[in-house]
Design goal:
The longest helix is centred in the N-terminal third of the chain and has 26 residues. The protein has one domain. By secondary structure, it is mainly alpha-helical. It starts with a helix and ends with a helix. It is built from 13 helices and no strands. Helix 1 crosses helix 10.
């Protein structure tokens, strides 16, 4: 439960930060009025249009008023509030591709979505630690594709040796959790939110280690905790840029 709560909080912060950044970029984009892009996007993605129509028909109490008010004239700033996280990722990528917005986190967003959904649906995350893919960077099913960019990012963490990285990054839940960490670090600007999140992760890992005897016969769980501890420690160490920030700790 502790891990799922952290994953969901990080995912929500990523989604919020991406929306803020998208709106900021749009507000400075003289080529876009905020309306045409939504119309073009929906013309290209009929399934998302169908989902919006379904929400209108079902009269959802959470967004029906917003839908009915803007259904004939969506603008970017209200449209993003009506999308699921997966749909928003599709729209975000569409915007970045259309305006050649250089964004190095695009390849991380689908893994973030997968682990977010797993946490939201209360899936047992540690139950899949034995599952590895057979070949690197080869898509083996619709839900998992190893990211070369993510693998490169992890390779720059000094405490993680190449053999451990290659082995662990073949496990979808570890791969996606690493993507969540890197996306969170790159997208979220608030240092206080970052520090709180990293400290929550450290507390969780300390809790695992405090009860490591529970896993005395499970080398996979023990090695996974050790691997993730090194990844988390890397982010916590670099969460602050100067001595004044560090004093806040």
């Amino acid at each position: 439960m502790h891990l799922r709560k952290i994953i969901l909080n990080m995912s929500l912060n990523i989604e919020h930060s991406l929306k803020v950044q998208l709106n900021r970029h749009f507000s400075e984009n003289t080529q876009e009025d905020g309306y045409n892009i939504v119309r073009r996007f929906l013309d290209k993605h009929e399934k998302i249009q169908d989902n919006i129509n379904y929400k209108i028909r079902t009269n959802s109490p959470y967004n029906c008023d917003l839908l009915k008010k803007y259904i004939r004239n969506f603008a970017l700033w209200n449209f993003v509030e009506l999308l699921s996280f997966g749909e928003f990722i599709t729209f975000y990528k569409y915007y970045c591709d259309l305006y050649e917005k250089n964004n190095d986190i695009l390849s991380l967003l689908l893994p973030v979505k997968f682990i977010r959904n797993a946490a939201a649906h209360n899936n047992c995350l540690i139950n899949s630690l034995k599952r590895q893919i057979k070949h690197e960077y080869v898509k083996v099913n619709s839900d998992f594709n190893l990211s070369k960019k993510l693998n490169t990012m992890v390779s720059k963490i000094p405490k993680i040796n190449p053999d451990s990285r290659i082995k662990k990054m073949k496990i979808p839940v570890i791969h996606d959790f690493a993507a969540l960490l890197f996306a969170f670090d790159k997208v979220v600007d608030s240092k206080s939110i970052k520090h709180y999140t990293y400290q929550s992760l450290i507390v969780m890992i300390e809790r695992f280690n405090r009860n490591i005897d529970y896993f005395s016969k499970n080398d996979i769980i023990k090695s996974t905790i050790n691997f993730l501890a090194k990844v988390v420690d890397n982010f916590d160490y670099f969460a602050y840029n100067d001595i004044n920030d560090q004093k806040l700790k």
